[in-house]
Amino acid sequence: MSSSAHPRRGVCLVLSAAPGAGKTSISRELLATEAHLSLSISATTRAPRPGEEEGKHYFFKTQDEFAAMVGEGAFIEHASFLGRSYGTPRAPVEQALAAGRDVLFDIEWQGHRLLRAALPDDVVGIFLLPPSIRELERRLRHRDQDSDEEIALRVAAARDEIAHWDEFDHVLVNEDFQQTVQAVRDILHAARGARARQLWLGDFVAGLLGE
Ligand code: 5GP
User: Fold this and answer.
1) Ligand 1 neighbour 66 (Cβ under 6 A)
2) Whose CA is nearest to atom 10 of ligand 1?
3) Domains of the chain
4) What are the pLDDT digits (tens) for 152-189?
5) Nearest alpha carbon, ligand 1 atom 11
6) Residue 110 CB–ligand 1 contact under 6 Å
7) Cβ neighbour number for residue 121 with a 10 Å cutoff
8) Hey, which of 115, 183, 185, 202 has its CA 20 to 30 A from 174?
C-alpha cells in the first residue's frame, strides 16, 4: 500500500534543545536525508549571524514588521528569547500538513508549548539534552561571533531551556551524532504511521465491516 494511495496528514516534528546541544546539525542531517520533510523557516527580530541567509535560515524582520505580523495573525506561535522575538509563519505549516508533508521545527520550549496547544494532534516533541553543561559551554564558545556576554546569557538560557525537558514526548541525550539522528528518524517514522494521521483508515474500516 503506497502512501500516495493512502493520504496521511503530516507530522509537526519539534526539535528543541538548549542552544549548543547539537540540534542544528541534527536538523540539517535529517532534512538532507528524509523525503517529505521540510524545515519551518521562522521570522525573527535578531540580526543575521555571518553566513545566515534571508528566507533560508530566518526571515529577518524589524520590531515593527514583526509586530504587524503578530497583529495579522500570521504566526501560529511566537515567543521572546533573550529579548528578541521569534515566530513560526502559519500558512506554510497548515499547507504542508494538509498535503501530507512533515515539518521540522527548531523552536524553544515556549514555542513548543504554544504549537502543541494550536495543533494538539499533530505535534511530536523531542528534547535534546547535551551530555554535560561543560560540553554545552564548549560548543557555545566555538560560535566565535558571539561576545563573552552573549555566551554567558546563552548558557543561562540553556539552563532555563533544560528545565522544561519533561514537557516533551521524547528526550534524547545527544552523546553520539549518528545515534541521535537515527533515534529522531525512528520517532518520525513511527509518528507517520499513527492512526490519527492515516486519513484513509476510517473509510477502509467502514468498507471492511460492510463486506
Ligand atoms: P537563535 O537565535 O540561536 O537562532 O535561536 C534562539 C532560540 O530561538 C533557539 O532555541 C531556537 O530554537 C528558537 N527559535 C527559533 N525560531 C523560533 C520560532 O519560530 N519560535 C520560537 N518559539 N522559538 C524559535
Assistant:
1) no
2) 108
3) 12-40+102-210 (3.40.50.300)
4) 888 888 999 999 999 999 999 999 999 999 999 999 99
5) 107
6) yes
7) 11
8) 115
Buried b (16+ CB within 10 A) or exposed e, 72-102: eebbbbbbebeeebbbbbbebbeebbeebbb
Sign of CA dihedral 8, 9, 15, 16: negative
Between the CA of 79 and the centroid of ligand 1 the distance, in Å, is 8
Q: Which single residue is written with the C-alpha cell 503578530?
A: 70
Are residues 114 and 98 in contact, defined by beta-carbon separation less than 8 angstroms? Answer: no
The pLDDT of residue 2: 42
The arithmetic mean of pLDDT across residues 6-29, rounded, is: 91
What confidence tens digit (pLDDT) does each residue in 104-126 have? 999 999 999 999 999 999 999 99
Distance CA 21, CA 129 (A): 6
- Pocket flag, ligand 1, residue 107 (CB < 6 Å): yes
Residues 6+ apart with CB under 8 A from 170: 124, 125, 126, 127, 183, 187
Q: Any bridge partners for residue 126, and if so which?
A: 15, 170
Q: How many A from CA of 193 to the centre of ligand 1? A: 28
pLDDT band at 28 (very low <50, low <70, confident <90, very high): very high
